Amino acid sequence: MNAKDEIFMRRALTLAKKAIGRTCPNPLVGAVIVKDNQIIGEGYHKKAGLPHAEIEAMNSVKNKNDLKDATMFVTLEPCNHYGKTPPCSIAIAQSGIKKVVIGMLDVNKTASGGAEYLKKSGIEVVCGVLEEEARKLNEVFIENKVNKKPFFVMKAAMLLNGSIAVKGGVSKWITSDKALRFSHKLRGIYDAVAVGINTIMMDDPLLTCRIRGYKQPKRIVFDTNLRITVSANIFSKYVNNVYIVTSLFSSASKKKVLEAMGANIIECEMSNGEFDSKDLSSKLIENDICSCVVEGGSRTHGYFVKNSLYNKAYLFYAPKITGSYGAFNAVGSQAPSNLQDVSLLKDMSCRKVGCDILVEGYF
Amino acid sequence: MNAKDEIFMRRALTLAKKAIGRTCPNPLVGAVIVKDNQIIGEGYHKKAGLPHAEIEAMNSVKNKNDLKDATMFVTLEPCNHYGKTPPCSIAIAQSGIKKVVIGMLDVNKTASGGAEYLKKSGIEVVCGVLEEEARKLNEVFIENKVNKKPFFVMKAAMLLNGSIAVKGGVSKWITSDKALRFSHKLRGIYDAVAVGINTIMMDDPLLTCRIRGYKQPKRIVFDTNLRITVSANIFSKYVNNVYIVTSLFSSASKKKVLEAMGANIIECEMSNGEFDSKDLSSKLIENDICSCVVEGGSRTHGYFVKNSLYNKAYLFYAPKITGSYGAFNAVGSQAPSNLQDVSLLKDMSCRKVGCDILVEGYF
């Protein structure tokens, strides 16, 4: 690996990020084509079904003869299978490109093998340039393929001692406008936003992303007994984007009413009185929900923490503190009696966002 | 105010800080004497009963003739009364010094008036240079004099959702060694450390400062019904530094036993089944406890938060999270039903201390 390789790979990573929140179930990929130390072509994967980054980059080079002896920098191993598009590995091998520098190998067994194919075709292949950055870029995709589950993100707005609502469930507004804006961005970046039915009953949120330029998320409600009413705000806009996760045994007629309105019903297996976490994960993946930011409330976070489903946390702390008796804690589930049994966060960082503190970390 | 004034005043502030944790009930004060833009003398107040900073600075000038036409920079208005030492105002007026630059005026009515006296004596007086820093330096002293109460500091080590202990009260150790070390420094900086009787029963702490070069704090236990046992660890060292705050009605014979051991008993008025906060504050001040870091547990923090007694908070968050049911929250008191009724923190900041996050702020 050398410094120039890193510069071009960093450019490819930057390109890849342009499609953040839009490529599900595909990974984010960027590609740069370089000849004589000059970038002659660039591309990134914009959306599932559209061309891969490598093809976009090659297409961006007007005179195809220029590809001869060029080097391609691509954040993810070129695919080697016929999906919605033909294999990039073949297209590269036929292009005249003589060297391919790869960020990370594909963790998706179905599509991987591109690096091997290229080598066999006589192309020089270098792997692992800015691999850590490439893996972080595709943390959602990796979680989907390796653990067969959505990348679940915990988002909570708390008092300094962990309450997300005071007595009676009052939570508007604990944190400031800037924190709220950040939360809306998360809705635009991840595929879906989810809340429990209690949050719907209490706050009646829209759950849309209200920042221009960001996509609208799918909106999920965890509602075992289908207590949601047809007049809930969540149905007032983009109703096709609403997914109600419920048990097999909740009212069939209500399911029909909600489906007739355009909402999606996801029937999930139960296990010990709550959603079976494996079935929940598969059902969400089946519905092209690769990532999901869970906004609460207390019991919903409790369920996700207890079942070790979370991958990442965005925790906001307002400069406020008060008694906890009768308040709603961020994590509404049983505490262990041993400190060894708590969930740990890695790479924890903190910073001010407006007058609040944002703590980020990985489970 | 000019840039040179600030440089010399900053030096005076630095000198004052050398005695941090040792001047109670007096303020921290530093003084610098300048002639022809050169520092010719320096001093700071080391301990109650010892000379004031101004006298120390004048004494540090070997040839007293050099004081003629010199300028003194002092962080706090020179005193104007006979306390344990005679008034600095007179000594300065007699020294030949022609100008005095003051950080902040004294909030202590008994000692103030020095600036006025100096002016009347024909000395040029400038007030308010780095006043904000001077006030922050003496936040404890100001609280004592203005609100007639100790400067109370909340210190808590929490999980990310506010628990200070999991089920059964297990709290060892939530945070890392670095956070623990920081807590010991707080014990060395503030006059006293305090815990509730439940913490004594559960953790049996020593509450000493275990960092070299720092003073030992007074150690306070809030123990309404005098449940503490004579074998508690806290009595194993520096027993004269132990203060048991209890009600007038707890066992008189046990009070005698504890006093015979060398511990101090503070009898506090009760109000609605808990210590009367005004009487508590007066009794602590009477015992030369000007500042006190309260380490918990849950109900003790609850009492201090509910009664708006806290001035400052040091809140540690470990990179850990778990269910809250059955856990001990940092603030064990009733939540309000309105977000307007929570306690607010000003000047909140955050930073990593080891693998934990430290949040600081002022109530």
Biggest interface and its residues per chain? A-B, 56 and 56 residues
Specify the helix fraction band of chain A.
Answer: 25-40%
Strand order of the largest sheet of chain A: 11-10-9-8-14-6-15-20-19
Mean pLDDT of chain A: 96
Poorly predicted ranges of chain A: none
Q: How large is the count of helical segments of chain A?
A: 11
Integer-rounded radius of gyration of chain A: 23 Å
Strand count, sense and closure of the main sheet of chain A? Answer: 9 strands, mixed
Distance between the termini of chain A: 31 Å
Q: Multimeric state of these chains? A: homodimer
User: From the helix content, strand content and strand pairing of chain A, which structural class follows?
Assistant: alpha/beta
Beta percentage of chain A is 25-35%
Overall 3D form of chain A: elongated
What's the total count of β strands of chain A?
A: 20
